[in-house]
Amino acid sequence: MLTQKGEKQQEKEEKNKQYWLNERTYGSFQRTFALPESVDPEKVDAKFAKGVLTIMLPKKPEVVKAEKKIEIKAG
User: Fold this and answer.
1) Can you tell me the distance from the alpha carbon of 26 to that of 10, in angstroms, rounded to the nearest whole number?
2) What is the pLDDT of residues 9-44, one digit of tens each?
3) DSSP 3-state assignment of 37?
């Protein structure tokens, strides 16, 4: 299982001649994913850059060897 947890916080302030608006939102989240059996759990890696979370799920070596490439011929 892979569990992702995080918190979101946002503040918004808007001033005008007629009104002043100040909003704050916050909250936490959690998501859990079942990893496929072909994934090596010891080599799972995650990177967060520019607001994007990238999770690398490398396959186990024995699964990689079992893959078969199929050549596509033009008809």
Assistant:
1) 6
2) 999 999 988 999 999 999 999 999 998 988 998 999
3) coil
**Pairing mode, strands 45-49 and 20-33:** unpaired
Which of 9, 43, 2 minimizes the C-alpha distance to 26? Answer: 9
Closest Cα to residue 5, out of 31, 24, 23, 26?
A: 31
- Please name every residue paired with 46 in a beta bridge, in sequence order, or none if there are none: 55
Length of the chain counted residue by residue: 75
Residue pointed to by tokens 């001649």: 17
Cα 47 from Cα 33, distance rounded (Å): 17
CA-wise closest residue to 22 among 32, 35, 12: 12
The answer to pTM > 0.70 is: no
